[in-house]
Design a protein that fits this description.
single chain, alpha+beta, Glycosyltransferase, three-stranded antiparallel sheet, flat
Amino acid sequence: MVQPPPSTIPRWSLAGLALLHAAVFAAAASVLPWGAPTPFAALATLLALFFALTAALALVGSPRRAVAWRATAFASLLFLGYHTWLLLDSATYIAVLYGSLGEGVAAGLAAVWANLVLFTVPFAAWGIAVTGKLTNPRIVGGTSAGIALLVGAGLWRTAAAATPEPHPSPLSDPNQLPAALAEIVADLPPPLPDSATASLMTRDPAHCDAPPSPELATLVVTYLRRSAPPDPQPHRVATRCVQATPAELLPALRAALHDAATRAPLKLDLITATAPLSSAHSAPDAFAVRPALDGICHRGRCFMPWQLVALDHFSANAPLAFIDDFRFGVDTHRLARAFGRQPDPEERIPLDGLTRVTTRPFMVDQDGHLREIPRMRDPERPFNQRTVQEAIDLAERYIVAAQAPDGRFRYLQNPFTGRVSWQGFAVPRQAGTTLALCEVASDTPPVRKAVARSLKMLASLERRAQDFSALAQQFGDTPPRFAPLGNTALSLIAFLSCRDAVDRQHDQLIARLGRFLLALQRPDGGFHPGYSLQKDEIVLGPDPLYAGGQAVFALTLLEKLAAAEPDGPFPPPDQLRAAVDKAMTYTATRYWAHGLYDFFFLEENWHCLAARASLEHHPHPGYERFCLDYVAFKSRVVYDQDSRVDPAYLGAYGLGNVIPPPNTPAAGFGEALAAAMAIREARGLPQGDDPARMASVLAFLVRQQWRREDCFACAPGVEVAGAFSESVSAPEIRIDFVQHSMAALGHGRRFVELQP
């Protein structure tokens, strides 16, 4: 390299740009919420020092700044190259393991890589061009070819590591296996009177004589075995790991079940493939085991996939400690504890020594039927008029049974432990659940009683201020200080929608809550976030998420009621109409006015529900168009046949196969889609692909719902039929998961010709 004269090397511009880059990489190393020290943080710190040195030499005008600049340029390219390799290696492992990378994961990795390029390539290219170009093309070409060869070999090795080694089948025709297993099960004693409430849940791994390997066929069976005196229990849960040559496996299974008390419930997991795990690969450890599909063995001790789900291992990893709800994948510390270790919290626990096992899962349900159930759900569950109505009825019964005598609906329930929690109870969830009962549930005495109890409880939260009232939740003995918009808006929707079910006894409260929403409306048509009960004044600010659409929904329902009953205690119909029109116009023209309108929305389902509720008495073309545009955007992210995801996920959306899609977003989209289709129907617009899309969403929800026959591991005496967990790999049930799913099924069914 020929050293350029110092006069040609920029000074102030170089110093400013280098300082900016130094700050960015220092922040990346120290501010980003890494769970532990990482190579990225160390290398980012080192690169930040390179940039800082270059900036310092440029600021003092040192002629050595050219050398520092060139060194920093090559360090930047090395940093980019190393992390590009890590991203490629990680993407290859995940794509092979899960069948595809998934559009969401691919977009995330591309965004990370683009940021690395932005803060390395421009600075490096400028530095190399100014301080002396690369003049030997042979060296450049040879180096590039060598790097490409090494990268290709490394990715081939990574793909091989992600591919499991198959195990032999006990039958030459694997399709005959269910019939062979059913024949063995049929010889066992019939179901006992109390086996319908029995659970096969066990926290202990199966103990195999040898680690599962292709040399032996391995089948893990969990069943109820007969107890021997003086055991007071007639039967106990037992797990056996049956290992034999493929030809001898089924006779060995028959022998292993000699002490079975009953044929149902019974769980069978045939291990079909294994792959050793290692933390040496670039893919995050959290993604090394496929949620709800893979089990884990440590030598001869094995947890089956359903056990890992029941023990909540697939939502154990918390990469951002300050966001408790952001959890996905396995956590190596929890896995170590499951296998009996007690690691130090600060100790790094690698995956090495563990084996990922793929299984073919069967169960004999409480009725004695043998079924194949990947992810603890029946993939063959039919989708038709009967099953949709059954799903709605089951959800209704679950919600009614989940109500306490004081009117509150249970917040959390774990189907496998039976643990119930009322912590996290929130007014919007209570009101939303009540609304779902009034909109789509049956008109029966139990439902009416549940609605009346809930509305009475909500009414007890009233806090009067000036000439209006708000609903505010009290925590402990401390009086509430703030009344958020959403509490009152969604509760008012429930009071209005359920008015006939309780003989209109809350009309005065409805009027006061309506005046509260009018008072919180801004001059531009939007809504302030809430009211300070402590200071007795409106808290100024922008529209809170969800609550703006709920406020429009509540006011348009109240407008319709006030117009029908002008002598009632409600605000004047003209005042309500003007407020609704102003809110709709604001939403249609200013609320989401940005350059990415066609490509990006947040969760705006409530605006669609408000637009549908206004079709007969207050149509607003612009507001309806906002809903249609929002649904068109969300439709692009819903999985269809072209999405390259597992068929079980069709109708939902998320991060491809890598993280199982949560049920509530799919249900919320179903609610919005039903509203958009009602708008098109009223306007005489074509429905296009939406009926098929609606059928896909509802079919997904029908498959995701807990049924009695799926609950072979549910806690004894715990009724979860009709409920929805967060996803197939995150077991906890929340009342709003059930509420939104029931509402989507109830509103969406008529658009796929399922309405009775």
